[in-house]
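Database export, one record per block. Field names are fixed; values are copied verbatim from the stored entry.
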Amino acid sequence: MGTMSINGLTLALDADGHLANRADWTEGVARDIATQEGIAELTPQHWAVINFMRSVYEKEGDAPSIRRLTKESGVDTKTLYQLFPKGPAKRAAKIAGLPKPKGCI
């Protein structure tokens, strides 16, 4: 487990580099994580995916897979990869303050 500093706060990370404590997540933290991940701005489409992931996690206790994201979030596969390059489900979960989805490498 490591840590991340955002706006003067030190946040604990899990073994995969995602927030260890979901209560630490805010939209501001999400923006800062996105910037660190190379995503300069979170657009409404980014937020649609992030909010969908958080909603599924809240109900089911696990972040949705890439397959489920493309079927249920309203954002197609090509767009997901444009929004969250190099592993959209994992990167979106990280920005959403969630653990890495099961099945992600």
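Remark 1: The mean pLDDT is 91.
Remark 2: DSSP finds five helices and two strands in the chain.
End of record.
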